[in-house]
Amino acid sequence: MIPDLLADKPEGYNLRIWIPGCSSGEEVYSLAIIIQECMNKARKNMTLQIFATDIDEDAVLTARTGLYPLSIAEDIRPERLKRFFKLEENRYRISKEIRETIIFASHDLIKDPPFIKVDMISCRNLLIYFENSLQKRLSNLFHFSLLPNGILFLGPSESFGSNTNLYTVLNSKWKLYKRRDVISKLWANFLPNSSIITAAKARADFTSIVGSEKSGMINSIEKMLLENYTPPCFIVNEKGDIIYINGRSRKYFELATGEVSLNIATMVKEEMRYSLRAVLRQAAKTKEDITIEGVRVIINDEQVTLNFGVRPIEEPGTLQGLILVIFEEVNALPVDTPLSNIGDSSSNAVTRIDELENELKSTKVQLFRTIEEIELSYMETAAANEELHSANEELQSSNEEMETSREEMQSLYEEVVTVNNELQTKLNELAHSNDDMTNLLNSTEIAFIFLDSDLNIMRYTPLVPRLVNIIPSDVGRPLAHLVTKLRKTDIVCEAQRILETYGQIEKEVETLDGVWYLMRLTPYRTSENTVAGVVVSFVNISKLKALNLLNTELRDRRDYAFSIIEAIGFPLLVLDGDFKVLTANLDFYRVFQVSPLETEGTMLSQLSKGRWNTRELEEKITTIITEGISFRSFLVDYEFPGVGYKKIYLDAHRINSKKPSADLILVIFKTEN
Asked: Which residues pair with 154 in a beta bridge?
């Protein structure tokens, strides 16, 4: 269905979807992922905007977080899991690409205004908790919210029943509907509270009979009739619909052509239909007993005179509002009996005249009542017309107010969109800054713990578990509740000192595994330069510690070697592979009258104004470096400046190191006295 929904949308279109009853967000994110995939497959450059609402604020907060356990990997394909989820602290978080398309909000579907101009509504497994009247109202509400040809997606056990005339069924199994371009009845919720509507509602409520009460009502009717009436009678409501029949009454009825009806005014003989309808209406209004006498009807080809009366029922309470209709035959006279056959006596003539006068009198009474009914109907029609006219004016005024409100809401909506865009930009910047901060903290190989003013854990970096027994659910807990892996160090006490003094503490600490860290505690300062907590950082200094130990050892070894060199009773030089003087002993400085400044770092060939710059000496020393062959008692005699002529015997040896390029040469000078 979604590819068809996207097919006719232009480039740059903003696809709007509303998901009421979003719960903890699985349905929202699933739908967002599916639509995003369909957009990419169709290569549609559109924006997706999903409004996810729920009356439960805790559920909205959970959905907005977008964190789900590792077990969701069993239900989601690996390629989707890799693209739309990010592994974070042993849980999966919905990717930023999907979260940016969704706006979560707390919303009461029944009381709050709906989201409008949406392309799709997904309301699954929510309507099953509502009664039919509320389902019908929501059907109109969803129809009002959807754009033409918008899609409605319900749960597998849900439907709108008779209200499907607002929608076209796309898939009956999966409850997919398309909005039809008809007028919904959402406006009925905003009609003024006129007397016409109130009366109509009252009549509708009055005529409805609850199934659980029906049995008790029938028992009350039978008891009342047995105690008071034996003639044929009927129990009807104010509209004349028959509820109960007592006695042999078939002869008073005839079925009318057309639609079948149980209304007594349409089923009785034609001669008394209008009169019965009139007295029923009058009795319902006045709550008084009314009797009509001398009504002649034709029953089985015979003329019968009837008296019928109507009496509103007041007792018992279950029958209040109903009307009792009683038929009673007073005499019968054949229609085709001629007046002359009755007899010539004056008494018979008088009787016949009385009957005609009574009939005329009854006809006049019926005519008078008919005229009254017509006048009353005219007055009611005029009053109804005035009320309708007033209601129409109210509706027009309401329509103008709604139009003004719509314009205001449109303006407000544009402002909200602008603010939302600005907020989205700020969120993007914040997310980018947060990513930079996270990468910075992770790349520094420094463990950070951020504590609030109550020394509760606000945040920590991935290296902290090496020092403190901490898990993701410990965020928000006091640091004092956790066990550290440090020897003789109380972080909580040190942090409390920071909150009291606003100073800074640095000290070297050792873990139980023998790893050394430099622990630094500083105040956590806000942008307003107020202290809102403590930042604890740990820098691994184990390598620095080892290097210091090595330097100390090397320094000790150097001092030891120098002491040996100083103990030798001859002048001595130490050369590197390039024949540069590294060091000399005090005897060398004394014998040859030179200083350390002009000796150390100087080439051998440049010492004593070049007195040692001989090819033969250079070759012998080179042989020591290349072949490792030492030499002894190599004679050199010179006139040394400030010393005089001296005969010197040289002994030279190679001092091996781990790297051949770092080998040294030890030269000993033996002079003749």
From this structure: 123
Output the CA–CA distances (angstroms, integers) from residue 259 to 45, 245, 256, 262, 267, in the order listed: 58, 21, 8, 10, 12
Q: Spell out the alpha helix ranges (H) of 504-569.
A: 542-567
Three-state SS letters, 95-158: CHHHHCCEEEEECCCCCCCCCCCEEEEEECCCHHHCCHHHHHHHHHHHHHHEEEEEEEEECCCC
Identify each DSSP E strand in 228-382 by its residue range.
233-236, 242-246, 290-299, 302-312, 323-333
Name the least confident of 314-323, 401-410, 612-621.
314-323
| CATH classification (class only), 2-188 | alpha beta
Contacts of 386-393 with C-beta under 8 Å, sequence gap 24+, read 387/194, 387/195, 387/196, 388/196, 390/194, 391/191, 391/192, 391/194, 391/196
Radius of gyration of the chain (CA): 54
Any idea which residue has 């005035």 for tokens? Answer: 386
Q: For the segment 493-503, what is each residue's pLDDT rounded down to a tens digit?
A: 999 999 999 89
CA 314/CA 324 separation, integer angstroms: 10
| Residue range 37-63, pLDDT digits in tens | 999 998 888 999 999 999 999 999 999
Nearest to 544 by CA among 508, 572, 512, 568: 508
Joined together, the tokens standing for residue 304 give: 């019968």
Q: CATH topology for 224-337? A: Beta-Lactamase (3.30.450)
Q: What is the CATH number of domain 551-671?
A: 3.30.450.20
Higher-confidence position of 266 and 50: 50
Q: Which pLDDT score is estimated for 185?
A: 55
What is the assigned CATH class of domain 444-540?
Answer: alpha beta
The first and second tokens of residue 562, run together, are: 């120098």
